[in-house]
From TrEMBL:
The lineage of its organism: Bacteria, Bacillati, Actinomycetota, Actinomycetes, Kitasatosporales. GO terms for cellular component: plasma membrane. The gene is glnQ. This is Glutamine ABC transporter ATP-binding protein. It comes from Wenjunlia vitaminophila. It is found in: Cell membrane. Gene3D superfamilies: P-loop containing nucleotide triphosphate hydrolases. Keywords: Amino-acid transport, ATP-binding, Cell membrane, Membrane, Nucleotide-binding, Transport. Residues 1-235 form the ABC transporter domain. It is a peripheral membrane protein.
Amino acid sequence: MQATGLGCSYHGRAVVSDVELSVPAGQTVAVLGPSGAGKSTMLRCLAGLEPLHSGSVRFQGETLSRAGGRPRSVGGRIGMVFQQFNLFPHLSAAQNVALAPVRARRLPKKQARAQARALLDRVGLGEHADHYPYELSGGQQQRVAIARALAMEPELMLFDEPTSALDPEFTREVLAVMRDLADSGMTVIVVTHEMNFARQSADRVVFMVDGRIVEDGPASVVLTNPRQERTRRFLDQMLGE
Ligand SMILES: Nc1ncnc2c1ncn2[C@@H]1O[C@H](COP(=O)(O)OP(=O)(O)O)[C@@H](O)[C@H]1O
Ligand SMILES: [Mg+2]
């Protein structure tokens, strides 16, 4: 995944500017930064969900999105998980996971159901496949949402503060699933405030302020020895909590 000169504006105001980000396959990148820094917008640009004001996004050798053009549909090749799980309330966990493969990839229903169960097993929810979202904790719902994204067999997973809506006990189980994914060789970009996850599971940390990437390096370097004073202040604040 390669973003070059990436810029995104709302109502003429630049929200993301001059972002250069190249993520090789298999890498796990944690994106940190204060609220309003443009992290979510950058992620949406990378996923082809926002028109670009400048620059381009390339994914697996093709231009996914460029300024002035309409983003190309990537099907499920880029999976996205948000803070809000957005499961269909009237469908069971397994049905939520099987829906897109049947609709978008035309996978036979039987096969989709088997795949859904295998994926729910993988995220530790094998026993809950037939439960409805209201019967599941927030952490369980978020793991269903991850399984749902994985059902489209993505080659890149984008997470936008996947644990911000969760209590600490449920945060842990979601982070464990994400760590598994990272370890399995998936390419992962995750916006998070979980410093331990960034330290232990990310190969690389990017720090954003005012729509720009101001630090980009190995987690061990950015988290312990950032170049910028404002990164240091942010980290002190996060770690002090
Ligand atoms: N759809 C939108 N329309 C207008 N402004 C937006 C929209 N989405 C985000 N913004 C603005 O863009 C800036 C960056 O937002 P965001 O990408 O959500 O930051 P972060 O995820 O780092 O908190 C904020 O000032 C926000 O108000
Ligand atoms: Mg955000």
